[in-house]
């Protein structure tokens, strides 16, 4: 089977397993400047302008690796994760698709119209839409800005928990 077709099938399966709601029904589009399958590690290696879109969810990165067996994704170099009104940026991401979770590092920013949260790291659950931000946390809501060791933010209801 053509490696690119196999790769697109795996990514499509990943998004079907990992996504909930409208994004789950959409056929993903995956692009990168370079795609390589490493038979020794079982990983697809994507480099340059990596972009994965499924419905309203989009992930971009400078480079990424995808595990065929565990449906894990590692990305780095200018990560953005967007879906509807959710916009996250980070230096790196580790997504474990079977649990609908992502761990972001390297400086994380969540931006929405009414709140901005920056932190060293974040854990985000796509199913519950809850993010936990830790390390040098700065929260800006309107004209108010404050610091915290960590915050948990529910994106469904727009509240800090």
Automatic annotation (TrEMBL):
Native organism is Sporomusa termitida
Listed Gene3D superfamilies: Lipopolysaccharide (LPS) transport protein A like domain
Q: Where are the transmembrane segments?
A: none
Superkingdom is Bacteria
Q: Can you tell me which residues the record assigns to a coiled coil? A: none
**Residue ranges constituting the Organic solvent tolerance-like N-terminal domain according to the UniProt record:** 30-71, 116-153
Keywords in alphabetical order = Signal
Q: Which Pfam families match?
A: LptD_N (PF03968)
Q: Where is the signal peptide?
A: 1-25
What is the name attached to this protein's record? Answer: LPS-assembly protein LptD
What taxonomic ancestry is recorded?
Bacteria, Bacillati, Bacillota, Negativicutes, Selenomonadales
């Amino acid at each position: 089977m053509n490696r690119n077709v196999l790769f697109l099938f795996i990514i499509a399966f990943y998004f079907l397993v990992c996504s909930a709601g409208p994004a789950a029904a959409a056929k993903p589009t995956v692009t990168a400047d370079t795609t390589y399958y490493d038979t020794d590690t079982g990983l697809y290696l994507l480099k340059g302008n990596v972009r994965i879109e499924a419905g309203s969810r989009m992930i971009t990165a400078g480079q990424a690796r995808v595990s065929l067996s565990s449906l894990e994704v590692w990305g780095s170099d200018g990560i953005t994760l967007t879906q509807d009104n959710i916009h996250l940026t980070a230096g790196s991401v580790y997504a474990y698709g079977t649990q609908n979770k992502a761990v972001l590092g390297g400086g994380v920013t969540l931006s929405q119209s009414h709140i901005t949260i920056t932190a060293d790291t974040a854990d985000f659950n796509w199913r519950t839409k809850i993010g936990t931000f830790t390390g040098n946390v700065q929260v800006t809501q309107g004209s108010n800005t404050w610091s915290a060791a960590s915050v948990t933010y529910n994106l469904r209801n727009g509240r800090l928990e």
